[in-house]
Design brief:
By secondary structure, the protein is α/β, with parallel strands linked by helices. The chain has helices at about 5-15, 20-25, 35-45, 50-60, 75-90, 105-115, 130-140, 160-175, 190-205, 220-230, 245-255, 290-300, and strands spanning about 65-70, 95-100, 120-125, 145, 155-160, 180-185, 210-215, 240, 265-270, 285, 310-315, 315-320. Strands 2-1-3-4-5-11 form a six-stranded parallel sheet. Strand 8 (about 240), helix 11 (about 245-255) and strand 9 (about 265-270) form a beta-alpha-beta unit. About 45% of the residues are buried.
Length: about 325
């Protein structure tokens, strides 16, 4: 019978001490982020899985990791749930996903289902419930919130640096010569307000004429907003949609109207998840570090003595494809 990999195997592979491996995996002490990532990579390479049986017996919790998925149709949250599940599996956890079905009652029922399993922890993906209603349901369950920042969550929040993401949008479009940019926003969705505020600040600082059109984080919201722009007869040279799904709706409306992209109007999305869903839109987008979000969420859940958690904001990156180009030259 093949011997199961041990902490010593991980330490040799990573080139560190056994004590440092143990410290990194238990979440105790201070371990540099680069070293922690190297140790986690070594665990995966040698096939080491932490023994959660003893942890479960000591804590009275199962080896389940609960995930509240507020919107199963949102490709961003689905991609994050997949990343969480992969990293949970590497840590020896079984992922249980419950959906909130877009209602407070649905989210309440989903959280009650998850906490009834005595999970190692719960990861919240875009919950819409108010904090005062949500937090008592979670009780002492170790909990991480992704995307939405909830101050009272025990293991803190993991979110995108929205200002940095919007800066990438404006710098890219302004660098192509666009001086009239419309943002089709995400309505009341998670992060929509942060993106609107950052957009106004960045465009004004760049000397760009901003416009905000109401929308939502889905295809229909982008489609309706683009149709309204077309009907108003004031198309900008560039449109930035609140996420990739909304951008897909914008592209559909523009194509129906015979507007060339990017010849007449450049279009940008946000999240960079359309490719994951198998939809090739050639869409320029801001990529969220989805795998890092999943990894960090699992790390925080498994850290037994979580301190200094708070909110961590991860850096986005720009992915340029064929939906953006130089601003069209005005007809004299």
């Amino acid at each position: 019978m093949t011997k199961a990999p041990t902490l010593d195997d991980v330490a040799r592979y990573a080139g560190v001490s056994r004590t440092l491996v143990s410290t990194a995996l238990r979440g105790k002490g201070r371990v540099a982020a680069s070293t922690r990532l190297r140790i986690l990579a070594a665990c995966k390479a040698v096939g080491y899985r932490p023994n959660l049986t003893a942890r479960s017996l000591a804590s009275g919790r199962s080896s389940v990791l609960g995930v509240l998925l507020a919107d199963v149709l949102n490709t961003f949250f689905a991609a994050v749930a997949d990343a969480v599940s992969r990293h949970a599996d590497q840590a020896g956890l079984t992922t249980l996903i419950a959906t909130g079905q877009h209602t407070e009652a649905g989210e309440r029922h989903a959280v009650e289902q998850l906490t009834a399993q005595r999970p190692q922890g719960v990861v919240l993906l875009g919950p819409t419930m108010a904090e005062e209603g949500l937090l008592p349901l979670l009780g002492a369950t170790p909990t991480v919130s992704i995307s939405r920042v909830l101050g009272g969550v025990s293991r803190g929040a993991i979110a995108l640096d929205e200002e940095a993401g919007v800066r990438l949008v404006v710098e890219h479009l302004a660098g192509l010569g666009h001086r009239s940019i419309t943002h089709i926003d995400g309505g009341s969705g998670v992060s929509a307000d942060e993106r609107r505020t950052a957009f106004l600040a960045r465009t004004r600082a760049a000397g760009v004429q901003p416009q905000i059109f109401p929308g939502s984080f889905d295809i229909s919201g982008g489609y309706r907003a683009a149709r309204a722009l077309l009907a108003a007869g004031r198309l900008p040279t560039a449109i930035w949609a609140a996420n990739d799904r909304a951008a897909a709706g914008v592209l559909l409306a523009l194509r129906e109207a015979g507007v060339r992209v990017p010849g007449d109007v450049s279009v940008m999305g946000y999240d960079d998840v359309t490719m994951r869903a198998g939809t090739e839109l050639h869409l320029t987008s801001v990529r969220q570090p989805i795998d890092a979000m999943g990894q960090l969420a699992v790390e925080r859940i498994l850290a037994p003595d979580a301190t200094d958690v708070g909110t961590v904001r991860l850096e986005p990156s720009l992915v340029v494809r064929g939906s953006t180009g130089p601003a069209p030259t005005p007809v004299s």
